[in-house]
Amino acid sequence: MDLAVAFDPDWTYAQPDAHRESRSKKFTNAQGQPQGTCVHLGECDIGCKVNARNTLDLNYLPLAERHHADVRPLHLVRNIVPIPRGYRVEYDRIADCTLKPGSVEGRLVILAAGSLGSTEVLLRCRDLHRSLPGLSPFLGRNWSSNGDFLTPALHPLRIVNPTRGPTITAAVDLLDKAVDGQSVFIEDGGFPDVAVGFIEDLAHDEGGDQRAQALVESLRVLARLNAFGRIMPWFAQSRDAADGRLSLKDEVLHLEWDIDKSVDTIEAVVRTHERFARSTGGIPLVPITWTLAKDLITPHPLGGANMGSTAQNGVVDHKGEVFGYRNLYVADGAIVPEAIGLNPSKTIAALAERIAALIAAEGR
User: Fold this and answer.
1) What is the topology classification, in CATH, of domain 72-143+301-362?
2) Residue 235 and residue 255: Cα distance in Å, rounded?
3) Would 52 disulfide with which of 38, 130, 158, 321, CB 3.0-4.6 Å?
């Protein structure tokens, strides 16, 4: 896979202490931020100790700050109010365990809080505060889980070692509907060995007493058994029906989604995962949450403020501009009108960069 990770072509698993953090080569990236090369720590899901992942805080955000952007963390947007010269964005700032209200005004506002965040802000503006009453009636519709699914597989006779290396490294593209007439995209997965990390932290705690050190040694024995090393997490994205609907209920974001139209797609994913697991000597463990309740979990929510040709079939136009509200934009996964069936980060980035380029070209 083409990963947004900095790699060292000279690094190999054969090196002594290959996964030691000191093996990471330090460098300064194009945005002037310190990074390191990947040493396959396997902690991508929860962070990266060597800063090998090309995350927003290492590229887009510092680049924006170089162009005089004022980045303000810990601000919760509550409302967007039209004013004669643009919009007033009202927020609560988290400080000292309290919420402190404030606001900022701008000629142009771009929402980029993700599918759930941007949709919720707009729903609050339309249905709760009534500050943007003309928002499209399509707001909240066509939400998608992007057909995400996880099937662990147990390999009793084989070490697959999912706790080393980047979380996803390879994929099988079946988006041509080769599986039971459904479009699916299968990936290898990974997860961090949190227990080993905890052990290492304890081992380096010089202030620990003898009982603590005895605990460390006991945990090390368990770690040598490599229980996690025999679990293979199969990931997938697919093209579900994208028919979810987001709304506010008692001022809380609520999702209504009829799974019936997506069952065939998810079941195709499950069958593919089962085939892959068995063909590699594994025992697939389909989550009981799906088997019994048809419940899903997604890291890639899409839609809710979809692109459309008019306010009758979308919330924003192809430029990301909200119908009926000049200079109010949405530039994130909320505007994606259907399931992609792939990890959507590149698609979202491409849409955001296109929106920025069009705003600049029009001199807004």
Assistant:
1) FAD/NAD(P)-binding domain (3.50.50)
2) 23
3) 38
